[in-house]
Amino acid sequence: MMNLSSREKKILSLLNSTHGIVTGKELSTKLSVSERTIRSDISDINSLLEPFEIKIDAVHRKGYRLSVKDRVALVGIFSQEQSYITKEDRISTLLLKLLRSDGWFDLGNLEDEMFVSSTTLEKDIKALKRQISEQHPHIQILRKDNKIRLEDDERKKRDLLTRFYAKNWDYDSKDGIVFKEMEFGNSLLVEVQQLVKQRLNESGVHLDDFAFIYLTIAISVMFFRVKSGYTVNTDLLNSSKDSPADDIISDDYKIDEDIRCILDQLADIGDTTFDIGEYIYISQIKNQLEFLCLKTYSKNYVLTNTNVVCHMIVNDLLQNIFDEFGMDFTEDDKLFIDLTRHVQALISGIVAPHTQNHLFGYELRKKHAILADIASFMRKKLSKKCEIELGIEEEDYLLPFLVLSEEALYRRRRGQGIQVAVISHYNESITHYLMETLKQKYGGYFKFYGPYAQYNKELIESDVKFILTTVKIDGFSDLFHVPSLVISPLLTEIDEGNINRYLEDFKKEYLIK
Questions:
Q1: What is the CATH number of domain 416-511?
Q2: Which of 11, 89, 133, 461 has the fewest Cβ atoms nearer than 10 Å?
Q3: Which of these CATH numbers, 2.60.40, 1.10.10, 1.10.1790, 3.40.50, describes 299-413?
């Protein structure tokens, strides 16, 4: 299992999280490789994992699905983090080495251990700097002669460890993904989870799955680091460089009562004590997670509980979207609230953005091409404004918000519905059947007028924007000043396709100003 590349692990992870069949095209698009490469990877995976009764089945003309008889074996695959096969593998392994030691690493020894040339190692170090030094958390990689190490910033080291383990957590396994070399081990994590769950249930605080796992991992990392002699004091909590997060971090030095209770119990269990800085550090994480999980859409509440820097970033971003794409989301309070809470998390750096392995983003991009372009545009803007490296997962996170906001804008602008007149030259029963079928299928989009007979078409309202007619007489459509479409009273599949194309055109007309 040690020979699985990071891409092959991603294939396993994607299939594991999908709970169904995934096409080869979907996998190739997600991983930016050809379908031929996917087939080759799957063949390699099946050969390597056959002894562990883990197999990727090919379903004829449909795609692939994962068959797992023992999930412990699957978790074991992800537990093996010492991998140097791909650049991504090497960078992750290098980061963990630097995080786990205060000493200097000789580059020559690293080259031998990772089986790479000096040129390759230098490129990996440069890539790691882009990820953690030039972007959040801005921890520096120090260099002396032919040696490297991380700067002494305990909070930043903990944040990176917590993010690493939260990112690799398997929400489809009972115990998640717990690395064999993980600092704190599974028993401590289970103990912390029980304490957190009990306390939050008592206080009525809601955290979603990601927030709960992130908080418990952060507490476990804190406990292990304290036991190893590393502490976070109040000076470190406010030691961030000049960045949009300065005001956000310095404003909050309160100890959350839930965290006070949890850490007091944990200290008793572990026969240790925690400095006040540890209580403040974990309180900041818990408060940020709780805020992100709030089920409120009160704009005033969000404005009061987020920094003005976040409001400026979101307002500028929405204006940028309007200027670039012509879609005006500036009056959508729900989108403003969702984005403001998200930006608060990004620029504070207190918690990592929640990324998912699911293929939902890919599916949404297929259905909403323009919104996918807007999500990509937003990701680039936010990466720059929030000083954090953001990838395709950010677009996956933003796209559902945009889909909902676009639909809300469309509903507001079309009002009760697009005015559509229906002309039928059939008898009463057939015409009634047609009208009811149209209302069932398109009542949420159209406001129907009629039915009108062919002879009294002059009665059609002047503000009608579209005409549906059963009349096939040549030149009949030329009698109207708006688009018209001939349909069958049975409303065939072809008719529905033609109507839907007109709907898309109307939608663009309403949305883009």
A1: 3.40.50
A2: 461
A3: 1.10.1790
